[in-house]
Specification:
11% of the residues lie in helices and 29% in strands. It is mainly β. The protein has one domain. It has a 4-stranded antiparallel sheet, with no helix packed on it. Strands 4-5 form a two-stranded antiparallel sheet. The chain is globular, with a radius of gyration of 17 Å.
């Protein structure tokens, strides 16, 4: 289900635009920016889809008590170990009749470390390689406590972002595993054209 009823749309848009401006500033000026130093003078901000509260949904978690190891291939061709700690199920109900609605699932992962937070949700969708980065996009979700079966968690695709390897080949990024390839378009979050 969409989680739009509990938020003020104008305030939400303002907060999102503010976060995006902060990120643009980081990319333009910070020494750890993924934008190569010789390209920063020409950098005039990231491209984004317009904020859309439709893509801020409530997901129901199924927690995996004995998390399975998932080997994610990386952009440099190596494998990165993650644990599949939860499956997030959510509904999308969109006004646009050209876009498919329904119930969807994404796996949430953590690295194998004792303090592994937040939940890592890499995904691909029908915008991947066309309007968004060809390697997929990421979301990080913070749970306010240890997740239990049936817990609800906000998944905001407006916060979906391209990994640093989209901007520089010096970075090595995990690629979303096939179980997180959505067969729908999610026109929310960062664009990459």
């Amino acid at each position: 289900m969409s989680d739009t009823g509990s938020i003020d749309a104008d305030q939400y848009r303002d907060e999102l635009e503010s976060k995006r401006a902060e990120k643009d500033d980081f990319f333009a000026t910070h020494p750890q920016s993924p934008i190569p130093p010789e390209e920063r003078d020409d950098f005039d901000g990231l491209d984004y889809f317009d904020p859309d509260p439709t893509y801020r949904v409530t997901a129901t978690a199924t927690v995996h008590d004995d998390p399975e190891v998932v080997l994610m291939e990386s952009t440099a061709g190596r494998e990165v170990r993650y644990l599949r700690v939860a499956t997030l199920e959510f509904d999308l109900n969109r006004d646009d009749e050209d876009l498919e609605d329904g119930t969807f699932e994404l796996a949430a992962y953590q690295q194998e470390s004792p303090n592994a937070e937040p939940l890592f949700v890499p995904f691909r969708d029908k915008t991947t390689g066309q309007q968004t980065y060809q390697g997929g996009r990421y979301m990080e979700l913070e749970a306010d406590r240890d997740l239990e079966d049936g817990d609800e968690l906000v998944v905001d695709f407006n916060l979906a972002y391209s990994p640093f390897c989209a901007y520089s080949e010096t970075f090595d990024c995990p690629l979303p595993p096939e179980e997180n390839w959505l067969e729908i378009a999610i026109p929310a979050g960062e664009r990459y054209e």
